[in-house]
Amino acid sequence: MMGLSLDVSAWPAQEGPLVVPWTEPGNPAHFHAFSMAEDWLAFVHSFNLSPSIPQTVALKYLRAQKLYAFAWFDCDLIKAGELVALSALERALKENYEGKLKKSGLAAWVEYMAEHDGLTDKVLPIALRCGQPVVQYLYETDAAIEARKKMGALEPNTLARIRNGLAHGDPFDGLSWPGLLEIVRDLIEYAYRRRL
Question: Which residues pair with 150 in a beta bridge?
Fold first, then answer.
């Protein structure tokens, strides 16, 4: 399976740069500016999946990358790319974790990865690259739920909540989620790590 490969030589120049938030060391929402289509495509290409990932998942993920790439023409396409990326992640987790727990679905499978399959910040590439915790924000822990109840705080934006918001018309979905495509890539590869 090949990763994202597009010829952008004929793509038009932008009047201004494409600016997207992305997680960087010391800054969970650093704004990256891309003035050339080649640079944007190289950035999106850097999140290609391993060629060992099954095509059922890889093709969905590739579709997400294409939407990110075509955001060069309309940055709103990143939001569609996020939803497709999360769909690819859900497919990967279903293939690897369905039947291992009583519940099913994105939230349950991500929790299972962290609570029972060894997923920690010490093995998640984006967490290692940025030197910041990531796993604790991917799903709701029992401790976080209890702390939030005591404080009367809002519910966190876990992967399942982000997916649900994108799929069901969240009215507050302006900016893209920093690093989402990278997180999805890392989680898919973690789920299939025994096959890589």
Answer: none
Query: Cβ–Cβ contacts within 10 Å for residue 132, how many?
Result: 16
**Residue at token pair 């190289």:** 42
* pLDDT string in tens for the chain (196-residue length): 456 666 666 677 777 799 999 999 989 889 999 999 899 999 999 999 999 999 999 999 999 999 999 999 888 899 999 999 999 999 999 999 998 888 889 999 999 999 999 999 999 999 999 998 889 888 877 666 665 566 665 566 788 888 888 888 776 667 788 999 999 999 999 999 998 7
pTM for the model stands at: 0.87
Residue found by looking up tokens 């069901």 in the block: 168
Q: To 10 degrees, the CA torsion angle through 34, 130, 53, 64?
A: -30
Q: Spell out the alpha helix ranges (H) of the chain.
A: 37-45, 55-70, 77-97, 106-116, 125-130, 142-151, 159-167, 180-191
d(CA 124, CA 158): 16
